[in-house]
Predict the 3D structure of the following.
Amino acid sequence: MVPLIQKEVVDEKGWIEAEDFIDILALAQTAPGPVAANTSVFVGYKLVGVPGAVWALAGTVLPSFIVILVIAMYFARIADSAVIKAAFSGIRPAVVALVASAAINIGKTALHDIKGVVICVLAFLAVAIIGIHPIPVIIGSGILGYVFFKDDEAAVLKSQ
Amino acid sequence: MGDDEIMTVLLFKLLFTYAKMGLFTFGGGYAMIPLMEKELIQVHKWLSMQEFMDIIAIAEVTPGPVAVNCATYVGYKMAGVWGAAFATIGVVLPSFVIVISIASLFLKYKDTPSVKAVSKGLRAAVTAMIASAALSMARASVVDVRGIVIVGLVVLGIFKMKIHPIICIFLAAILGIVLWGGAMSVPGL
């Protein structure tokens, strides 16, 4: 969705400068929540303040809200058909593959050194083996990240 | 409690549960899946693992952010149109509040070593948690050779052939109809 937002608000409407959009994207990816929602809130807020944020977010969410509602209403009626059941028997392993590939893609950007791997392994043990809730694990990994990487990042900043 | 009260309680449970998940999702998209697995399947028992995976597939092939689509679908399943509205508002509420309140602060500090360091730690953990979610999903849904073949094909499709995930899901659906639909008419398969 982000490339579409960029095309529309930067190239077509000219609401946001290309450089500012890079900042907006950085914020949207670092702040919690769906990236597309964060992006639209920020773009709307930058242009028209809080009302702009409300309308931009509503505009982002409403189309899929309506589409999903229609699908959800209809799907319950056909879910028991043999063909749909067979189709979803094929779809579920595909979802496994999609989720696994998402893990691989994020891992490529996150696991550059032994410290990243240590956090990754600890988080995996905590969630998959011990069964700890993801929220404390996320908080803990933020703290570990701060402790592990702060000096590295400071050194990188100095060298630039 | 009357029916209305039970409904009201459920609506606010949906709102708070989704707000909690929105608040702790870093990295967008699939980063919410580990939280959804924990909250929706284990804590609230609103969904089975199969239903959860079906909803992810539907959310993926529908336009719009996957996490938001999932919220709408689960909300509707639990409490109709109002449930869909409360869950959807819940999942975007933290984004709204946080982006508006810290936008200017963030732009000032986003390149500082502290923010970058915390963000690196979060990404490493999100990698692990998504991988863990993929494993639990595999345990629940990949039960024979047909499933393993589809997992292998989709991984190949995504990384080697760069096929779009939506196309992968549709191709897997066709394979499903061929492989599982056939089993119903062919005895012994």
